[in-house]
Every structure is written in C-alpha cells, then in structure tokens.
C-alpha cells in the first residue's frame, strides 16, 4: 500500500508530458488524458484515505534513502482527506472547463497549454499534501506557483498580466521567506524532515523555536490569504476565467491552511502563538466580510468572503484543542467545495447574464431557474444554514470555543456568529439583485457579444475555432462598457451570452454541490473521521514512528 503514496504526484506529471506531446493535434485525446488521470488520482486518494484511517500513516522514502537524505512522502488521515476532496474538486472543475471550451486554440500559441498547466497544478497540490519535509513542501509550492502564473495569464490580456504579476511578486516574496525559514531550521536542527524536527525542535531554545514558528506562519498565512496578508487576492483571482478562479479560490488558499495545521501540530505543540492566531482569525472574519458587504461585483464579493471564512479555520488552529482541530478540518473540506462551487456559478451567471456586476443583473430566477437553484444551495451552505455542512463546521468550532472558556475564545465565538449573519446578508443581497428583482434595462440580451477587458491594441478579428464557447467569435478591440464581461474566456477576449448553458458546465457545478451535500448527509462519519484525525495530529507519535521506524 505504501507504494501508492507517490502516485498522486507522479501520475499528473507523467500525463503532463503526454499532454504536451499531443498538443492540439489530438485535442480530444489530450482532454481524455486529463480526465482519466484526475479520475485515477481521485480513486487513489480515496484508497489512501481509507488505508490511513484503518492502518495509520503510510510513508515512502524515494530512492530508499532514509531521512534526512532522501525525499519522504507521507499519507495520514489529514493528507488523505485533503487529497480526496481536492482531487474530486479539480476533476469537476476540469469537466466544467471542457464545457466552457477552455483549451488554448489560439493560432499564435503552438501548444494547448491549459491542460499541461492544470495537471502540473494538481501535481503541486498533491506534493504539498504528501510532503514529509520542509524542502519538498517548498518544491510543491513552487510547482503550484509556475502552473498558477500560466493559468492566471492565459490569453495575455492586460488585466490578467497585471493580476498575474501581482500574484507572482507576492508568491516570490513568500518563497524567499520560506527559504529563509528552511535555512534557519536546518542550521538549528540539522534536518528539514518533519518527523525528525518533531523530536529535535523541542530541544532548541524557546526563542529560536518561536522565530522559526513565526516565519513559517507568515509564509503560510500569505498562501492562505489571512488578514492582513490578503490584500493581493481580490485583485488577482477575479480576472482569471471562471474555472481557474474557482480552483484557485477553493483550493490553493487551503494549501496554506493545511500547512499551518501540519506545522502547528507536528512541529510546534503547546500553542505558544495561539492568542496571536485568534486575533488574526477575528480580523480576517470581520474585515473580510465587511469588504464583501461593500462589493457590487460578484467575483470580488466572493473573494472577500473567501478571506473572511479563512478566519474560521485559523480560529480552530489558534484554539489548538482536539474539538477545535476537528471543526477546522471539517470547515476546510466544506469550504473547498462550497467556494469552488460559487465561483463556478459566477461563471455561469456571467455567461447567462453577460456580467458579474450585480447592479446590471436581475430577473434570473425566472429566466434561469436552474441557475438560481445552483446558486441558492451553496450560498446557504456558505452562510451556515442548518443542517448544511457549513453549519456543522461552524457549530464544531463555536462549541470548541465555548469549551475553552478563554477570553479570546468567547470573542471569536461572537465574531463567528456575527460573520455568519453578515455572510447571510451578503448572499441574500446577491440573490435579491441578480435573481429576485426584475431585470434592469441595461442587462445584456441573449446572443450579445461582450467585449473583453483587454486594454491592448494587438487583437485582430478571429474566426470561430469550432469549439463551443471559446470566445473566438466576433472579437472587437473597443473597450467594454462598464459592467460587461471582463476576460470571461480563456483568451480573455469576448463571450457570447447564451440562454442555454453548456451541459458539462452545469453538470460539473451540480457535482460540486453534490459533494458539499454529501458532507451533510454523511455528517456523522465525517465528524468521526475528523475527530480521529485531530487526535492523531495531537498525538504526533504515529507520524514520527511511521517515518523514523521507532
């Protein structure tokens, strides 16, 4: 069973080579490779999760080099759950992207770069979840960074290039901090392996431990978009195509949360920075949701709710109790699916209504009842309406806060309740403006060709590429009127509004909703699993013994 641990990383990397080799010559086969590999990765993730739950952590030392010389990959309950949820979500987003025509068929681009970049992103995410040492964790981050920049800047439009540049600058800064933290850790402890660090860091002076912990938390807080290190996110994610934004918002920020969970439990037990984490969690919740209240563009609004709800997860990490960790893990799994779903729905709204600017939308509950239902369910889940999984995660965290009884814990309980109510207000505002009220006079009619947000003069007319919804039809270079679609397609050029949405897009969105609802239906097994996961994280011994053989 241990031999299966590297496959979630290796399969997407090998498939990337095949995808690049076929390019646009065999586009259907390229798409088949991507779907088949992500399906296999999802199945492998389920197998690893079940095996880790039944038999304990699984590890493999690549090249049979023992720590600290070799690369160690470890699958325990936490990484198994994260792999399963992330692989299922990335598969759904891939199917959605196929429905939108998310294959790069620009005649100026010799390769179909979307699928290779997407597969590399999946490999980087899997590498991060399975990493057994700080160096391999850093490698996973850099793999994600390379793929993310390609996906963010597809089409080369002005808004995407600006957003991608901001993203890369922030990511490179965090990478420099991460390298500094790794160097300090290795100099102080003589290893970067998690299992060995779990033993050796406790022998270091408390000041050295705290400095290393603070550096690592800063790095992971940037990745997770925790306030006040989240200013880059609302300006970076909304410019990308809907599938890219969905997988970034739903998944990549949770990689940072996962790393915070892993290091705080395995390397730095004792919760020395717990009060600081809870203060940051409260600030993220309140400031993020107030930012969402002030937005009128759906994508930016969802970006601010993302920042806000990261605070719930940091709340659980700051409390550092078994019940709090369990609640945080439930909320991570829930939020991956719900946030991804809402951004996918935003893409459908943009294709149906021609914009994500709420002041220019209306009447969609009557015009597109299926789309209204696809928005309503995850919106209520995000707000934490019983008995949905959002309520289950928030309830677990708030119960943990009450059980703790500390001053910060009570403040966070109150902040969590207030944030949940404001989230309900935000999604109700979206429902009222986009779906419930009558359509405003300026709403785009079906079949309207919406201009892109590209501010360059390089675009020329291009004919259709034969794939539905790629946005190559009727391209013009005049700037778009306010509120119209900005970079809605892969090329970032133009989109034609349609009354009948592509079936794969709707089916993929429905599938992510089904995953979120499954967390509700199977709430008892899920919470029992996360409770066992929290207990394993606090014990630390099973992880250390599996890796070091003690």
Q: Can you give a write-up of this model?
A:
With 550 residues, the protein is mainly alpha-helical. Helices cover 68% and strands 3% of the residues. It contains 20 helices and 4 strands. β1 and β2 form a beta hairpin. α12 (298-319) packs antiparallel against α13 (322-353) and α16 (389-404) runs antiparallel to α17 (407-436). Residues 102-110 and 447-488 have low confidence and may be disordered.
Main sheet attributes: strand count, strand direction, barrel closure: 2 strands, antiparallel
How does the overall form come out from the CA principal axes?
Answer: globular
Distance between the termini: 20 Å
> Could you tell me the number of beta strands?
4
Number of helices, counting only DSSP H or I runs of 4 residues or more: 20
Query: What is the CA-atom radius of gyration, in angstroms?
Result: 23 Å
Q: Note poorly predicted spans.
A: 102-110, 447-488
User: What is the average per-residue confidence, as pLDDT, rounded to a whole number?
Assistant: 84
Q: How do the strands of the widest beta sheet line up side by side?
A: 1-2
What is the element string, with H for helices and E for strands? HHEEHHHHHHHHHHHHHHHEEHHH
The secondary structure category is mainly alpha
Share of helix among residues? 55-70%
Strand content: under 5%
